[in-house]
Write a structure and sequence with these properties.
With 662 residues, the protein is α/β, with parallel strands linked by helices. The chain is 48% helix and 10% strand. Helix 6 runs antiparallel to helix 10, helix 7 packs antiparallel against helix 10 and helix 11 packs across helix 16. The N terminus and C terminus are likely disordered. It binds FE(4)-NI(1)-S(5) cluster.
């Protein structure tokens, strides 16, 4: 049971609301991942953490010690082969997760185009843009007709066997040339995952550099294939995010409403619940049991999806999913796929809360299953909400933290960044590039990925503050973004409080926070496009590897994060993680921590200490600035009236002018 004094890991929990909740007797009775981590009382297996435990065939498991002849695998596999195979399978699994998510979104998109869902084609400009990329005729055609053709073309790319993926054409030309020369252009999305699994089967690919070629190809099938298709088609269907204010905090649960938290990843379910929550019948039913209505709140990446597009509050990130339930105030936690801990159904035992699984691919013991039917999405959503309403009167003791709820500005799609820095009338990345060239902004740091129970979630905050203090503009996604929102870095005034002079000047003038929420984990594909736009704008080199930009998933937990890191690296962006399971294999780890740079212009880095981690990112940015010849110490350029007027014309409506937060 979580006892704040007794739990060694609890000093890693930040956020006033979480600590407030954990101090309540109610929450102390709940057994969380922190307790399980403490109870395990054993350190991680060195072979597993170093990547050299081989479980690929039944002659083992073989634990390999690099350089010790008697400690290769029974089949003779060396540490480098085993670590490369294990790493490859992580990337394949992460890509598979994004792929299966993306496929569902594309299927939902097709159903929407056919008029079979309660949704509609919302962003017609983006529909036309995507259709043009796919070579689809748009003149004089109905939006649903175009969407249907686009959806079918997109769906075909999953099972495609030859050729390359259409979205690859969006990358800078030099990047495409590098991929062609390396022979890593993905042929079809599913094909690359299957080939990766085959090549890492016992006795197939046993040369770590060759394995890494297929890893590169698989990662591109994720970033420029599955994830990008998912993001773009989801935007067309539910709207491309624009900046809006919202709240990220456990305290968003409501005493007087039926609390329904939506946890998982595929926004089709969450969007349908949003529509159904406003249904007159549902509101009447909620009132009948004494509630004012339905309070929807997000958890994990589903939370990010509806936060970005609708401004619906986020109750908690990955690390907080159990704490959301520990409040005793949730009538139902509705889940679909990915990052849902099996413990959630155990935590609610004896409470009025139901865990409702909704996807045939993801069931769990002691949960209730209500299948979400895409072709009857609205009815399915209503059925789920009716179930939650029925629980309201059974609510027993509960505690909703009343601390300050962090107000965030979210919704920074790559289109918004374009608009925000380029202005209403001349949307472009020119001002961003210019500010990087003149040194006001040193570079871009992407903080993405998960949270981790073994490490303090202060890590995200410390890294981000160090970055913005050094004038690095931070773009954040996934649970990392939620962690930064909880710590107040997504308010415009965070620029005044934490940023270095140059970044502060730009943020204050435009009215934006120094840390921008770019979306969920599949939305990391937005970062690929943002980087491409910066290349195309000119002045910062001719491929992504020359841009002063660096990625980091400082607290990665999921295989998806490694797939994302790898597609950044394959696309030319240096990436730093807290650790990687490669340390047991000398040549292989040297290859991914250095050698990949020769092939793709970028490689991986690892650093646990948050400040050193941030400095490693800054060093990578400075290296690019040096190579571009823009790393001269800039005298602080004070903005004259004209410069200020130019930028002020670009301030976002409703975002104030640098001091609009509260
Ligand atoms: Ni990303 Fe989203 Fe969070 Fe990690 Fe899980 S929710 S897809 S994997 S834990 S950031």
């Amino acid at each position: 049971m979580t006892d704040i004094k007794g739990c060694q890991s609890c000093d890693s929990i930040t956020g006033d609301s979480t600590l407030d909740l954990l101090n309540q007797d109610l929450a102390k009775q709940v057994r969380t991942a922190y307790d399980r981590l403490d109870d395990r009382g054993m350190s991680a297996c060195l072979f597993g953490s170093g990547g050299t435990c081989c479980r690929i065939c039944n002659m083992g498991p073989c634990q390999i010690i690099d350089g010790v002849e008697s400690m290769v695998g029974v089949c003779g596999a060396t540490a480098d082969t085993v670590a490369a195979r294990n790493f490859a399978r992580i990337v394949a699994a992460g890509t598979a997760a994004h792929t299966d998510h993306a496929r569902e979104m594309v299927r939902g998109f097709i159903a929407t185009a056919k008029g079979e869902t309660p949704h509609e084609i919302k962003d017609v400009a983006k529909l036309h843009k995507m259709a043009t990329i796919f070579g689809i005729e748009i003149e004089d055609r109905d939006k649903n007709e175009i969407a249907l053709e686009l959806g079918e073309r997109a769906l075909a790319e999953f099972g495609q066997q030859e050729g390359t993926l259409t979205m690859l054409k969006r990358a800078p030309e030099k990047q495409q040339k590098i991929w062609k020369e390396m022979g890593v252009e993905p042929r079809g999305i599913d094909r690359e995952v299957v080939e990766m699994m085959h090549r890492t089967h016992m006795g197939v690919d046993q040369e770590y550099k060759n394995i890494m070629k297929q890893v590169a190809r698989t990662s591109l099938a994720d970033g420029w294939g599955a994830s990008m298709l998912s993001t773009e088609l989801t935007d067309i269907m539910f709207g491309t995010p624009v900046p809006k204010r919202a709240i990220v905090d456990l305290g968003v649960l409501r005493e007087d409403m039926v609390n329904v938290t939506v946890h998982g990843h595929e926004p089709l379910l969450a969007e349908s619940l949003c529509l159904a929550a406003d249904d007159a019948e549902i509101i009447a039913l909620a009132k009948k049991v004494g509630a004012k209505g339905i309070n929807l709140a997000g958890v994990c990446c589903t939370g990010n999806e509806i936060l970005m597009r609708r401004g619906i509050p986020v109750a908690g990130s990955f690390i907080q999913q159990e704490m959301v339930l520990a409040t005793g105030a949730v009538e139902a936690m509705v889940v679909d796929v990915q990052c849902i801990m099996q413990s959630v159904a155990q935590i609610v035992k004896g409470k009025h809360t139901d865990i409702i699984t909704t996807n045939y691919r993801a069931k769990m013991p002691d949960a209730i299953h209500i299948q979400f039917e895409e072709d009857a999405a609205y009815e399915s959503a209503k059925k789920i909400l009716k179930h939650a309403i029925a629980n309201f009167k059974k609510r027993g003791d509960f505690y909703i933290p009343k601390n300050k709820k962090f107000d965030v500005v979210v919704g920074f799609s790559h289109e918004t960044i374009n608009y925000m820095l380029g202005g209403r009338f001349r949307q472009s990345y020119r001002p961003l590039n210019d500010n990087i060239i003149n040194g006001r902004i040193r570079g871009i740091g992407a903080l993405v990925g998960c949270e981790h129970y073994k490490y303090s979630d202060d890590v995200h905050f410390k890294i981000a503050v160090e970055l913005i203090k050094n004038n690095v503009l931070v773009l954040a996604t996934g649970c990392a973004a939620q962690a930064l929102g909880r710590r107040g870095l997504m308010r415009p005034e965070a620029a005044t409080e934490y940023a270095g002079d140059g970044l502060r000047e730009v943020c204050e003038t435009v009215g934006m926070p120094p840390v921008l929420h770019v979306g969920s984990c599949v939305d990391n594909s937005r970062l690929l496009i943002a980087l491409t736009e910066m290349v195309n704008e000119g002045g910062l080199g001719d491929d992504i590897s020359q841009i002063p930009a660096v990625g980091s998933a400082p607290l990665w937990m999921s295989e998806k994060a490694v797939a994302i890191g790898q597609y950044f690296v394959t696309s030319g962006a240096h990436v730093v993680f807290q650790d990687l399971p490669v340390t047991g294999a000398k040549k292989f780890s040297q290859y991914i921590l250095e050698g990949l740079k020769e092939d793709y212009g970028a490689c991986w880095g690892v650093e646990k200490d948050p400040i050193k981690h941030a400095r490693a990112m800054i060093a990578a940015i400075d290296e690019k600035r040096e190579a571009l010849g823009i790393n001269k110490k800039q005298e602080r350029v004070l903005m004259d009236m004209q410069m200020r007027r130019d930028l002020e014309g670009q301030a976002l409506p409703g975002m104030g002018c640098g001091h609009g937060g509260n």
